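Hi Y.,

Following your request, here is the sequence exactly as I used it, all 70 residues.
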Amino acid sequence: MDRNEKALHSFGQRLTQLRKERNLSIPDLAARTGLDARHIGRIEAGEVNILVSTVFKLAKGLGVSPGELL
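Below is the corresponding structure, written out as tokens. Let me know if you'd prefer a different format.
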């Protein structure tokens, strides 16, 4: 696993952790962010690279700062 893959995987784990701490399902988070639930699932799995704007949407949907998500 290269450095980029590790970063994507770590981000996905952090996203999953924060989502579960807030008792949100992936569809719940999708509704809060306007993102597709399948896309969020792929982010959590570390399968996709995301835009900075997506980080901000996810952070807002979770009620955390982007820095807490990263």
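DSSP finds five helices and no strands in the chain.

Thanks again,
Q.
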